[in-house]
Amino acid sequence: MKTYMHTDVHLIATMMAGPSGDENDTDVITETKPKTKRPPLYKVMLLNDDYTPMEFVVHVLERFFGLNHAQAFEIMLTVHKKGLAVVGVFSHEIAETKVAQVMDYARRHQHPLQCTMEKEE
Ligand code: TYC
Fold first, then answer.
1. pTM of the entire predicted model
2. Ligand 1 pocket: which of 47, 67, 80, 102 to mutate (most atoms <8 Å of CB)?
């Protein structure tokens, strides 16, 4: 189980030289500031191929990515024309699940459709 809590430690040192002539007092104050960091996000991408039917890709986008038919058709066409497209951005665990679901569904239907994930910059 990963956590994304980071802590910065700032050190503040003050040399005290009072009128007493005491030059040796040293106060050291340590402040810790908890810093929350958002977990990394992952792009899930669909890759083009020459064999998977367009209607199957549209169905996959509706079924696993919650897109309506028009959105799904548009993204399918982008993949078809450009070679690939980002179909969603998720946490590592959700992205892995989406990729596995799509790959398994395509395999069961004997289509070579490929789905991959990549860490967002
Ligand atoms: N290029 C495929 C065809 O012409 C359609 C297709 C689109 C396949 C998107 C994969 O991710 C894909 N039948």
1. 0.78
2. 80
